[in-house]
Amino acid sequence: MADMMWAGRFSKQVDETVNAFNSSIAFDGRMYRHDIKGSIAHAEMLGKQGIIPAEDSVKIIEGLEEILADIDSGRLELDPAAEDIHMFVEAELTRRLGDVGKRLHTARSRNDQVAVDLRLYLRDEIKQISDMTAELIKTIISIAKEHTETIMPGYTHLQRAQPITLAHHLMAYVWMLLRDMDRLSDTSHRMNECPLGCGALAGTTYNTDRELTAGLLGFRAPMRNSLDGVSDRDYCVELCCALSLLMTHLSRFSEEIILWCSWEFKFVELDDAFATGSSIMPQKKNPDVTELIRGKTGRVNGDLVTLLTMMKGLPLAYNKDMQEDKEAIFDAVDNVKLCVKTFTPMLRTMRVLKDNMRNAAARGFINATDCADYLVKKGMPFRDAYKITGTLVAQCIGKGLTLETLPLSDYKAMSELFDNDVYDAISLETCVRERRSQGGPAPENVLGQIAAAESALSFYE
Ligand code: ARG
Questions:
Q1: pLDDT value at position 10?
Q2: How far are the Cα atoms of 42, 57, 102, 369 from residue 50, in angstroms, in the given order?
Q3: Which of 7, 165, 173, 392 lies 20 to 30 Å (CA to CA) from residue 135?
Q4: Residue nearest to atom 2 of ligand 1 (CA)
């Protein structure tokens, strides 16, 4: 076996089990582009500052660019026996350039290197997740636009409560997802500071230019404290927290779709391409996609707990425990992308069964509040109106009627304020149309919400 890079200090080879245990290339190899990008910026700075000869800096940059192209094209494969992606790239550079390659790691440590790589990698991932979330939001909005008059029951305690429209219901998710985008952008902004040049923990005696490398890599500024620079993983936790919430929103939406697909609701029907069958029950059409999203939410929450627990007892500065950050945050990022990517077309192709929604809204006395409000508008105190309506509902249940079909004589027996116009006041269309309070389901209000959401979204484009 070849000597480790740090063999000088050691009198023995590292045990094979330790080597395998220590190695992270199996999961940090995916950051090779970002690692090379960081090294190119570092080499450029070393040359400009005269820390290494300018011609060596040029050779190193060319060598790194070739390695990048070779990995991209598959000509160069990552060595699974390498300790990590940083060691792999540097060893390959030295294999190609000899002594010149050995100058790259001047004034740098893997501790600041890995911190740069991970920030660069996650910055790209956040952008992708944010774009995918915007696409999902647009899909929801386009469905909402078609259903500003589609009446459905609104629920509390999963009991039919008051009439709303499908558009109103869907827009609730749009606002959740817009907050998710806000959190992602906030995280991305806060983490966009550069740890390169913090060294192992205490900076360096070389005359480095950290402003230059930060600028070359698109960071807002260098991090101020070298200990913090190498040991901060707040951005992993913050991102994972934002992703957990995003998943929570998808999971709640998924749960509703699972309910809506059941024969008990039958509010929607999934496209055949986005549902699965049963191996034994020929009649089944299962909403597996939404169930998997609900399931994977637990996994992303687990990643968040992994990160928080990993960090909570670490003394400053770098500790190898931190190598565990990557599998957790990569798992979260990968799964969120998978979920959003599948959820969006599933939603786009889902069929809305308007009549079933309307029929469900017509049973369950969801206009009882409106019946009480009818009396209030004729001068009765709300508590009295509430009590009378409750009695009417009980009578309806006894007689197998609804408030719409209960004869006027029964109404009048409870209060002389009731008149023929009560039927219009409690019609579901009126109930929805009149709910014009801000944030309510009246179609013109929801159209206003949609316009506001679209303008909030355009902010990210
Ligand atoms: N593979 C390591 C990680 O992911 C890179 C940093 C190693 N630093 C060290 N001092 N051993 O954290």
A1: 85
A2: 12, 9, 16, 78
A3: 165
A4: 323
Listed residue (265, 13, 201, 230) closest to 119, CA to CA = 230
Greatest CA span in the chain, whole angstroms?
Answer: 101
With vertex at residue 325, the alpha carbon angle to CA 67 and CA 32, rounded to the nearest 5 degrees, is 5
Atom 11 of ligand 1, nearest CA residue: 320
Question: Which of the residues are catalytic?
Answer: 157, 278
Q: Is 90 in the pocket of ligand 1 (CB under 6 A)?
A: no
Q: How far apart are CA 247 and CA 239, in angstroms?
A: 12
DSSP annotation string for 366-417? TTHHHHHHHHHHTT--HHHHHHHHHHHHHHHHHHT--TTTS-HHHHHHH-TT
Ranges of H-type helices in 200-287:
210-216, 226-231, 234-261
By most ligand atoms within 8 Å of CB, the mutation choice from 5, 111, 311, 329 for ligand 1 is 111
- Preceding omega of 372 cis (within 30 degrees of 0): no
Closest CA to 163 of 363, 447, 20, 392: 363
Contact 452, 144 (CB under 8 A): no
Q: Which residue CA neighbors atom 4 of ligand 1 most closely?
A: 323
At 40, list the tokens. Answer: 């190119």
DSSP one-letter code for 265: T
User: DSSP letter string over 177-205?
Assistant: HHHHHHHHHHHHHHT-EE-TT-TTTT--S
- Angle subtended by helix axes 54-73 and 32-48, to nearest 10: 170
CATH label, 116-206+230-359, candidates 3.30.465.10, 1.20.200.10, 3.40.50.150, 3.40.190.10: 1.20.200.10
318-366 tens-digit pLDDT = 999 999 999 999 999 999 999 999 999 999 999 999 999 999 999 889 9
- Measured from the CB, is residue 318 less than 6 Å from ligand 1? yes
Tokens, residue 284: 């089944």
Residue 173, phi then psi, degrees to nearest 5: -70, -35
CATH class in words for 368-426? mainly alpha
Rounded to whole angstroms, the Cα distance separating 90 from 42 reads: 13
16-106 is classed CATH 3.40.50.1820 = no
User: 347 in ligand 1 pocket by Cβ < 6 Å?
Assistant: no
Pocket of ligand 1 contains residue 114 by CB under 6 Å = yes
Would the CB of 110 count as within 6 Å of ligand 1?
yes
| pLDDT tens digits, one per residue of 417-447 | 999 999 999 999 999 999 999 999 999 999 9
Q: How far is the CA of 213 from the centre of ligand 1 (A)?
A: 21
Per domain, the residue ranges of the chain are 16-106, 116-206+230-359, 368-426
